[in-house]
Design brief:
four-stranded antiparallel β-sheet, single chain, 13 helices, alpha+beta, 348 residues, Arc Repressor Mutant, subunit A, three-stranded antiparallel β-sheet
Length: 348
């Protein structure tokens, strides 16, 4: 008899497979996330209320996360933040004015993030908004060139603008925190695979975020199992974390379900991510007129690595003044300029 459990994909099904699913306006806003919360373990991996205050230190940087009475914001709650960031970036790229306050239809968000659109889906959305607003973050991690050391919520506030007679929210208004909005305003974001919303396990989503941030367009990225556990914010024992990662490795070997990167665990307890070659299609380079050139989130990230210690946006202004024609590959041209800038001037 066939064991169907061995053949079933670990990914959630596409819950809204309509013909215009990927072409309607709502999905033109490619899913994007801010790099700061991709790098640091802001969100809880727990599926139960997590009411433990946590602090993470990495060199001179720190992040402290304190829960509300409803618990810490979870990895799945992050979907709302991703959705809002994506809407802001879509407006920014289209040359429309942007604001930290975003209004959206609850049904659109549920569809875009591959959630159920029944009563349970709306209840989950309301609970997620509560946790996002209630979770308080204190950090010295800089976004948009600004260091904000004070407590803030991941969203400053939210308001259910309109409900149906059955009590289901129709329109929601949220205000992003300054910390998140600064990152978006300065293009400190990366595009995510749409299959991110099909990953079932919180730890799979967190591991994908880290691979997306660090492996980026490189062919391979390695990290020790112990450091990966710290970056994930996993509070389980090292033995349990190894088991969880091994399960992901085995499922990925069978189904290749992890978006953009294959994941392996070697005998030296190093977790290895290998690019599947799909990243270039997420944020293609543009060939626009000089005055409308757009650098992708990947481009900014590579530029920071090419000119460590320098204000990338200051270098960008110099680069735009220096250009005489639009480059064919915007990201590569900007990164190359940053690299030469650093070679001539050294660390700031």
């Amino acid at each position: 008899m066939t064991d169907h459990s061995q053949q079933r994909s670990p990914l959630l099904p596409i819950r809204h497979p309509t013909e215009d699913f990927f072409v309607c306006d709502i999905f033109n806003a490619a899913p994007k996330s801010d790099m700061a919360s991709m790098e640091h373990p802001i969100f809880s991996l727990s599926t139960k209320p997590d009411k433990q205050t946590r602090r993470y230190d990495h060199g001179d940087l720190f992040v402290e996360i304190r829960p509300s009475a409803d618990g810490l914001a979870t990895v799945h709650d992050r979907d709302i933040l991703i959705y809002c960031i994506s809407q802001v970036m879509a407006a920014k790229n289209a040359g429309r004015p942007t604001s930290p306050t975003i209004r959206f239809r609850g049904h659109d968000l549920l569809q875009a993030t591959n959630r159920m659109t029944n009563g349970r889906g709306y209840d989950g959305l309301k609970s997620a908004l509560e946790r996002l607003a209630g979770t308080r973050v204190t950090t010295n991690v800089v976004t948009g060139g600004k260091e904000i050391i004070r407590g803030f919520g991941l969203i400053d506030q939210y308001e259910i603008v309109r409900e149906t007679r059955e009590g289901r929210m129709q329109e929601v208004e949220t205000k992003l925190s300054d910390w998140v909005f600064n990152a978006v305003e300065h293009h400190e974001v990366l595009t995510l695979s749409r299959d991110y919303f099909r990953l079932r396990k919180p730890i799979e989503r967190r591991i994908y975020e880290l691979a997306r941030k660090h492996c980026n367009r490189k062919s391979e990225w390695k990290i020790s199992l112990s450091l990966l556990q710290k970056k994930c914010g996993a509070v389980s024992s090292s033995r349990e974390f190894r088991r969880l990662v091994n399960n992901i490795v085995e499922e990925d070997r069978k189904h290749s379900h992890m978006p953009d990167y294959a994941v392996e665990l070697n005998d030296d307890d190093m977790v290895v991510f290998k690019s599947r070659g799909s990243i270039a299609s997420l944020e293609p380079s543009t060939g626009l007129d000089v005055s409308h050139i757009h650098i992708s989130g990947d481009g900014y990230e590579e530029a920071r690595a090419a000119a460590p210690g320098w204000d990338i946006h200051m270098i960008e202004r110099e680069w735009r003044d220096w250009m005489t024609e639009a480059p064919k590959n915007v990201d590569a041209a900007f990164v190359g300029f940053c690299r030469k800038w650093f070679e001539k001037r050294g660390r700031a």
